[in-house]
Structure formats: structure tokens, C-alpha cells
Design brief:
63% of the residues lie in helices and 12% in strands. With 470 residues, it is an alpha+beta fold. It folds into 3 domains: 226 residues, no CATH class; 93 residues, no CATH class; 96 residues. It has a 5-stranded antiparallel beta sheet, with no helix packed on it. Strand 2 and strand 3 form a beta hairpin.
Length: 470
Amino acid sequence: MIRSFSGPFTATFVVMVFFLLMQFLWMYVDDLVGKGVEWYYIAELLFYTAAGVVPLALPISVLLSSLMTFGNLGEYNELAAMKSAGVSLFRIMRPLMALVVALCILAFLFSNYVLPVANLRGETLLRNIATKKPALNIREGVFYGGIEGYSMKIGEKYGPDDRLIRNIYIYDHSARSGSGKLIVAEEGRMDLSPDERYLSLFLHRGTTYEDLVPSKRTERQRHPFARSRFEEAEIRFDLSSFQSGDLRENDQKSFNMMNIRQLEESVDSMRQSLKARQIHMESTLANKYRWEVDTAVAQGHVPTDPDIPLLSRLPESMQRRATDNALRLARSQKAYVSQLAEEYDWRQKVIARFRLEWHKKFSLSFAVLVLFFIGAPLGAIIRKGGLGLPVVVSVLIFIVYHTLSYSMEKLGRELVWTPFRAMWTAGLILLPIGIFLTYKSATDSTLFSVRSYTAPFRWLASRFRSSRSE
């Protein structure tokens, strides 16, 4: 049984990881190509990405391989032979149950110890590669804008190592130029510094055109410019931004880059910070609303009769000012309270993301076990192996599971549901289905027979007809 299960599982797992990896490549192909990044960085990124898609590939691999294994056994009547020999379905499933439990333990260990490191290094590499500037590759007859503040076109490159150039156009729109500047030269030479931090262009027989911005508006409409000629000139470009350094460097760590212990410590520290912030908010609001004896009241200039409205006690010259003052303070406090509410909601959502990740490390193993108990009995019931019907059924079941899991995780992110409820509900919904299918398969019930489900209604109809005949 283990040998029959291992082959489809390995093949399915490799195919699903490759499929999800191709999705990643299509999504980020624009960020990876044309950057002059060394091949080993790309290979390392793909390796970490492959590790990151394991939580998606593992459940569907277990579901499909278990469905194929028991479908093959049912299709070739091997299940019927074993059952006729007195071997129950639970005894047939026992070796695979032990294997799947071992897979669940490995899935938890992988999610807790390997996946955070893979996410950290993979996202760091992807971010650093995406923010890296394109490689310095100036082609003939094409404008190159990779150097910040400049656009250049070279008509022809020739000579040793293509260092000699002709028909050069350089548009300088950097901040230091202050205005648009165009440099045109007949020929020149390109030289890189020994450390490749600077590119020097030595130009010969050229002209510089620079826009002028006069102070008078009438002269601006004439669009004046300055023109100067030169026999030799040198322009130096700073290429320090093209130096990649170590693309593995990272300065931040997110919730999906932590193990259980780190997540618990982060949640505790964020809750303490939230509590301290709440205390500060309460003290700030309490200080803004307090009763004070007004100087005018204390000196007897304002009546203290409680039957007279407070605003009417003030002199007419002060009533308008007091009303405007009260409205201004009320609007200010409303904006402050709204800001505090948004901050409190944001802090709660951040804590929820960390708690969701904590529960996800356990719910992954639970989902693998539940999907096995759906796939194995369903394969024994439909008695169809191969890559036809089992693939269709397993994909449909996994889509239902993934949709439920993603939708409920989103409810947890928005604080509609608790993190525990959001991460475990999808598996708990499918658990009764797995128990029902296992029971039906163990008792050789006709699951897909319409007649078996309409039997109670047919019995009621017969009873009703017999009562009418009497």
C-alpha cells in the first residue's frame, strides 16, 4: 500500500510544485530579466520559492494520490478481493494512515522551521532583485535611460571592446542641470573606472544646447536657449547604484518569516504596546475634558443660576466666541478620536495577522489529514484510477477547500472572525465529509446511487398509497 501510494504522491507533488513555481515566474518575470543578476541568485530565489509553495502543493498531492491509489485498487477489483478475504477498509488504510500522520508531523516541522527561513530569504532576494537597476547595456541607435537623470543614444560603437563611439546624443534632465540640456558630439570614447563605479565619456567636436528660463514672462514665450561649442569634453556618470552587493541582505522580518516561538513573542510585545497606547489615549482624553471654574464666574460677572442655560449666562459679546470655540474644539476632538480608532483597528489587524500565521502552522497538518480521509474512501467508492476522473474530482475538492480557507482567513484579517475560527473552520467543514465518505466506503454503501437516496421517499409514497386504498 505504501509503495502504491508513494509513486503517485511523489509525481503529483513534484508536478504541483513545478506548476506553482511557473506561476511565480510568469508573475515576476519583468522584475527578474534584464537586471544583469548572477544566475546563482536566480537559482537560489527559485529554490526558496519552491519551498514556499509546499503548503499549497502538499494537501492537493495527498488528496490526488490517495484518490488515485484507492481508485486503482477498486478499478482492478483488488479492494473487493481484500474485503472478501476479511480485510476491512480501515485495515487496508492503516499503513497509509501512519504515513499520512508522519507527513502531517513533517508538514508542521517544515512550516515552523523551514518555511520562515525560506520566506525570509526568498522575499529578500526578490525585493532586492526587483529594486536593482537594469544592467548597463548601451546599444547602438537606441535611447538608454538606465542612468538616473540622463538619456543617451549612440549611433555607432567600434574599435577595441566597442569603446569608440560616434554620433552621440545626451539629454541631461538631472536636478543639477536646472533645465533641459542637450549634448551632441561627433565622436568619443567610453571608459569604465577600474572598480566599475564610474563611466567616463570623452567627447570630441560637440555642441551643448541649454534652455534658459528668463525672469520676465514676455521673454519666456520666445523660449531662449544657450549654445556653446567644444573641441573636447568629459562627462562622468556615477554607477554606484548598479553595484548589486549582496542581494541576500535584509533589514526587516514579517509575520510569515517567524516560527511559533517568535510569533508568540511578537504578539506579546504588540499587545503590551497596544495596552500602553490605550492607557496613553485614555489619559490624554481625560485631560482634555475636565471641569474648571471660569474666572468670570469666580469673580461674579456671570450668573450662577442653574436654571439659566450656560450659554445665556455669558455676555452677548462672548456668546458667539464661546460657540465658535466649542465647535472648533469638538471638531478637533472628533478628528483625534477618529485617528485613535483607526490606529487601534490597525494595531488589532497586525496582531491578528501574526495569530493567523500561528494557527496556520497547525491547520496545514490538519488539512492534509482531512483531505486524505476524503480522497481515500472516495477513490474506493468511484473505483476509477489513472489521471482522468481522479484529477477532476481532486481539483474540485481542493478548489472548495482553498476557497473556504482563503475566504475565512480574510475574515480573520478584517477582525470579523477570531484567528482560531478563521484558520480551522475550512478543515472542520470538510471533516464530517471525510467521516461520511469513510463510513460509506467501509460499509460498501452505494454513495452515487440515486435509488438509495430516494428509498425513504418511495417508502413514504407506498405507505400513503396503502392508506388511501384502505
